Amino acid sequence: MIIPIISAVLIALGLLFFIGGAVGILRFPDFYTRMHAAGKGDTMSMFTILLGLAVYQLQDPTPAHILVALKILLIALFIMMTSPTSTHALIKAGFMEGIKMWRRKDRKEKS
Amino acid sequence: MYRIAIFLLLFGIWIIFSGQFDAFHLAMGLISALFITLISSSFLFLDRDRSAGQCLGEIIRIPGYLIWIIYKIFQANIHILKLALTPGDLKGVESSLVKIRTNLKTDFGRYVLANSITLTPGTITVQIEGDELLVHSISDETEAGLRDGTMERRIAEVFERGKE
After folding, report:
1. B129-140 average pLDDT score
2. Please, which of A84, A103, B39, B91 could form a disulfide with B118 given CB 3.0 to 4.6 Å?
């Protein structure tokens, strides 16, 4: 009884982070800040959703279900390795292209 | 020594992915893991001048770091969520490029640092040149977190203990 609740909470949390990422892509001012919303909100929400699914598998802990849970965790691990790499590649490409950074108009320059 | 570790790693992954425990599938896994180990073990884990004890200590300390970084990612995600959902003209967003120096010596330590910075929402590593990292940060708060260097100290503790 407790396991479905835990997994539901984790999945709901992941969906909340996904919403944050999507809204961020639409609202943030420039390419770089949008990459923050796009690349990172996804990593965390994917991780919590997958964790929720893995926990749900453990409801009935036979070897087959444990294997499925392990596979799900491996997917999460791969996403956590590849997602920062692709975010970094995109942002470096943008940086080398010389895309201008957004700045607040009344912002004081820091030394 | 390294070959045995690689073989065990490959065979473990085979078991997880195949999910079959009969003799035929296990034998297939054994043969293919052995074959892969024979032809490609010299490409993996190139830094081989460490003792077994050092490697083992590293493996034991990694989960602690993982749990800490996941907690950090969680915190920072909530911060981004707040930024994205604040109505008005995006008050908290103060994007800036920050240069930070790192004291990490090994390539792997720097790789972990750069990836951890990119994983934590609000900060993305743009470039590494020598011991200088160019980081894009989205708000003043994430910038402050970047500058205080806790992450670097943690990584040094896990991966570079006894290498000073």
Report:
1. 79
2. A84
pLDDT at residue B36 tops 80: yes
Contacts of A92 in chain B (CB under 8 A): 126-127
> How confident is the model at residue A41, as a pLDDT?
75
**For residue B117, what are the contacts with CB-CB under 8 A and spacing of at least 6?**
B123, B124, B125, B133, B135, B146, B151
Question: B77 vs A64: CB contact, 8 Å cut-off?
Answer: no
Residue B118 and residue A80: Cα distance in Å, rounded? 10
Interface TM-score (ipTM) > 0.85: no
- This prediction's pTM: 0.75
Alpha-carbon distance B31 to nearest alpha carbon in chain A (angstroms): 21
Interface residue B19 vs chain A (CB under 8 A): yes
Looking at residues B113-117, what average pLDDT do you find?
A: 81
Long-range contacts of A16-22 (CB under 8 A, 24+ apart): A16/A45, A16/B81, A17/A41, A17/A44, A17/A45, A17/A48, A17/B77, A17/B81, A18/A42, A18/A45, A20/B77, A20/B80, A20/B81, A20/B84, A20/B85, A21/A45, A21/B80, A21/B84
Residues 6+ apart with CB under 8 A from A102: A29, A30, A32, A33, B95
